Amino acid sequence: MSKKEIVVSDVEKEHDNPIAELVQVACKFDSEIILESNNRKINAKSIMGIMAFNPSNGMKVNIVANGEDEAEALDAMEKFLVCE
């Protein structure tokens, strides 16, 4: 299991449809990917979960990945959320 805390950048300015695009990034990986913030945990592959979670500018988020490609999944999610 890999875990990293990040601060979300302004994803709405960087991406046309950030919620759907974030789910698409997560779905590229076999690993389970969970986003945690303020005692909430959601599956990053769930569009309804991401809509409810609503990652926004300045939000502190823990990305937790567990599986064979967890390191790659963690990096991809971080790059998307911090707009690198």
From TrEMBL:
Q: Where is the HPr domain?
A: 1-84
Q: Does the keyword Cytoplasm apply?
A: yes
Q: Which UniProt keywords apply?
A: Cytoplasm, Phosphotransferase system
Query: Which superkingdom is the protein from?
Result: Bacteria
Q: Does the keyword Cytoplasm apply?
A: yes
Q: Where in the cell is it found?
A: Cytoplasm
Q: Which CDD domains match?
A: PTS-HPr_like
User: Where primarily located?
Assistant: cytoplasm
Entries under PANTHER family matching the protein: PHOSPHOCARRIER PROTEIN HPR (PTHR33705), PHOSPHOCARRIER PROTEIN NPR (PTHR33705:SF2)
This one is known as HPr family phosphocarrier protein
**Organism per entry:** Maccoyibacter intestinihominis
Starting at the broadest rank, the lineage of the source organism is:
Bacteria, Bacillati, Bacillota, Clostridia, Lachnospirales
